[in-house]
Design brief:
With 390 residues, this protein is of the alpha/beta class. The protein is 42% helix and 17% strand.
Length: 390
């Protein structure tokens, strides 16, 4: 079976974000199941496709709102209003339907589409209706947009997020309805998307790599807690604001916290132990230098890849209940609480008595469940394909 994996940004091998890690895991699982997979989408500026022989590149594009100029942001807003598309999808309209259609023909004969998230599929929706499809919902995007609207600081931004939520709900419903099978990354997302039926959808347990990560020798602890993420993404920012504003004030003054990743303006803390360190050369080495990992999600849907990586590495953690979306097995060294003061106490306790565990069992369990779910979806798609094209 030849599948076209349609995504906004094609894999470049860097695995710099949770979205890219999830894509790599899903594509690898499709191939383990025997499918031939061709990827179509854009590259980041200055990046090349990791697998050019099985990738069709539509061009280079930077869709990050935080790094765009004011004229570019206004152009996106205006184009979204005129076209009726979501703000997220209109950014991808850097090429025409004709260009995408030509690229689809270049990809050669194929049996179906894997529509990876709503942004690219929503931008060129009409072109993906001639073959059966699987829809991969990384998040319930309309719910995330509603949360973003509630957290927005200004009226204009709040109205834009409300518009985004309304349109995303329509598009997500349409993509799920047309799809022969729906994959989500968390169980509750199946219900939120109206695809909770066992023969219509399944959850994809994810991993950060084909093999369980390994560590050589004992860890050197350089600080008490470490967080890393794309903090400009609004659901992540909401969790960070909760952590800095609600949890950190309960920590003792000498508790050392390092926060890495691209940071939006306005993020700060008066706690003397908090240090914002920006980009780090090795994300895994950075988190392994911490006594405990705070898993601080309070908004959004889908799965938290940082949670999965923490469990694969066997690191001690303190997690909110939202951080465990899509996770069926919680290691013994993970404490769960949504109470800010309790969260702070659990961090201090874990940092004082470090208990690493073997994360390989968690990784094996995830791989086994991921492959089983993928096979289920491909069987549904294959049955439809034979029915339609026989």
């Amino acid at each position: 079976m030849h599948l076209l994996f349609a995504t906004s940004i094609v894999p470049d091998g860097a695995l710099a974000s949770g979205y890219e890690i999830a894509n790599a895991a899903i594509i690898a699982a499709l191939r383990r199941a025997g499918a031939r997979v061709t990827v179509i989408g854009f590259t980041w500026p200055g990046k090349a496709a990791a697998d050019p022989e099985n990738t069709v590149v539509l061009g280079s594009i930077d869709v990050r709102t935080e790094s765009a100029s004011a004229p570019q942001k206004l152009a996106w807003v205006g184009k979204a209003m005129l076209s009726g598309l979501t703000f997220a999808s209109v950014k991808l309209r850097a090429v025409s339907d004709r260009d995408v259609q030509a690229a689809l023909e270049q990809a050669g004969p194929f049996d179906g589409y894997v529509l990876n998230s709503v942004q690219f599929a929503g931008a060129f929706e009409r072109l993906f209706q001639d073959r059966p499809s699987i829809f991969v919902a990384h998040n319930v995007e309309h719910l995330s947009a509603e949360e973003n609207a509630a957290a927005a600081g200004g009226l204009f931004q709040r109205l834009l997020f409300r518009r985004e939520a309304r349109l995303l709900k329509i598009v997500e419903e349409r993509l799920c309805r047309r799809a022969r099978f729906v994959f989500t990354l968390a169980e509750e997302d199946r219900t939120a998307l109206g695809a909770a039926s066992g023969d219509r959808s399944a959850v994809l347990p994810l991993v950060t790599g084909a093999k369980a990560p390994t560590r050589k020798g004992p860890r050197q602890i350089d600080y008490d807690a470490a967080l890393i993420g794309t903090w400009t993404w609004q659901p992540n920012r909401i969790g960070l604001d909760w952590f800095l504003g609600k949890v950190v004030p309960h920590l003792r003054p000498d508790f050392r916290i390092r926060i890495a990743g691209h940071m939006p303006s306005g993020v700060s803390s008066t706690h003397p132990g908090v240090e914002l360190v920006g980009r780090v050369p090795d994300a895994r080495a950075f988190v392994c230098g911490a006594a405990v990992i705070p898993l601080i999600s309070t908004a959004g849907s889908g799965v938290q890849l940082k949670t999965i990586e923490t469990f694969e590495l066997g690191l001690p953690s303190v997690a909110t209940s939202r951080s465990l979306r899509g996770i069926d097995h919680r290691p013994d060294n993970c404490v769960v609480t949504d109470d800010p003061a309790g969260f702070a106490r659990a961090l201090e306790t874990a940092a004082a008595d470090i208990r690493d565990v073997d994360g390989s069992a968690f990784h094996r369990q995830q791989i086994k469940a991921l492959d089983a779910a993928i096979v289920c979806g491909l069987e549904k798609l294959g049955a439809v394909r034979q029915e339609v094209f026989a």
